[in-house]
Amino acid sequence: MTVAPGLQLWSDVEVYAYDHKGYDVVVRVLADGTRMWANEVRVTQRDGGPPVTGEALRQVTVAAFVRLAVRAGAVIGKEPWAPESERLMYGHLDAKHRDLLREAGPVRETLEWVARAYRLAMAMGERPTKYVEEVFEVPRYTASRWIASARGQGLLGPAEPGKAGG
Length: 166
Description:
By secondary structure, the protein is of the alpha+beta class. Helices cover 40% and strands 20% of the residues.
């Protein structure tokens, strides 16, 4: 699945977590071109471990597994286990380039990167404006303006009331 130019993610992936809170968990994650979601969740009792109960199932945060699938697929040239602080948009944007884009303001190249960040956040099920704010280290107002400018230049689709548009 292509989220943005140069940013491809898997469209069907299984995420395995062995001994996750005492259970083995497998989450199958699918994609439709803009978002990824859990299609199947399997929670299995480990040998000698506690039984699978409703309480145990509530401890499995499905959204975290979806984010993990997106992050693992989006990483380019960086280990997926590296600390978040060492990556910007999972290896697609380095801090120096980000700083230059931020200084340039809402020019075409900056807005293209804003659209990439926005679409990546949407795919992860994150709040897109908040993600743009964090990636570019700008105030929410600036992130919102840049997103609106990206929409105005056709880099993002129209937003619907109460729903982000990518």
